[in-house]
Amino acid sequence: MQIAATKDLWQQIFGDQWEPPATMVLVTAGAALVIVLVNALWRPARTVITIVHEAGHALIALLAGRRLTGIRLHSDTSGVTVSRGKPEGPGMVCTALAGYVAPSLLGLAFAALLGTDRVTAVLVICAVLLFAVLIMIRNAYGVFAIVATGAVLFAVSWLATDEIQAGFAYLIAWFLLLGGLRPVFELQAKRRRGHARDSDADQLARLTGAPGFFWVGTFAMVNTGAVLLAAGWLLL
């Protein structure tokens, strides 16, 4: 009985879901692009990108054998993930590299799921991600940001129709894909002005000897590639 119930739950989450019309895919892509480009919308929405950015650092730090101390999210949409371990080496390089590419790569994973109509799986993964980050949050604003984001996700997941859930899942995927690009350009703009001297790109420069601009370019190429690949899956 328990095995059957587990199989039913697994099928409900990862089985084929309601297939949205092509217009929904295009409309959500357009909406995500507007959110990314319009500053008044981007500023509050950018916190979602920061959450995934810091989650990327945290996940790779754990996989690299580092000890995760905590995550802090700030009202200016910045964040920091603190881990302990060797201050150099492949583990530290991978940890520093993960942040700026995490949103677009997660968006690519969601596009793969949505390409096979697995809407529920996207929403479940979002919930698991938020809960995992909440456990490691070490400041009040960070808790507020996670809870507020989770409340929106909960409302859509439990109260909305299948059509709205599908549209929301597509919006999340497109926003992560496109929203992963803007912080890379913002980073380089800050670096040109002499700011962000301790950015991920500059940390990678100190760790590897390759210039910071090389790493900014790497972030941009990975995220652009994710957008192009995901667009092929979702639009064709």
Describe the structure in your own words.
This protein is mainly alpha-helical. It has one domain (21-235). 76% of the residues lie in helices and 6% in strands. It has ten helices and two strands, in the order H-H-H-E-E-H-H-H-H-H-H-H. It has helices at residues 2-14, 22-37, 39-63, 90-114, 119-136, 140-159, 162-179, 182-192, 200-208, 212-235; strands at 67-73, 79-84. A two-stranded antiparallel sheet has the order 1-2. A hairpin with a 5-residue loop joins strand 1 (67-73) and strand 2 (79-84). Helix 4 crosses helix 9 (200-208) and helix 8 packs antiparallel against helix 10. It is globular, with a radius of gyration of 18 Å. It comes from Actinokineospora cianjurensis. This is Peptidase M50B-like protein.
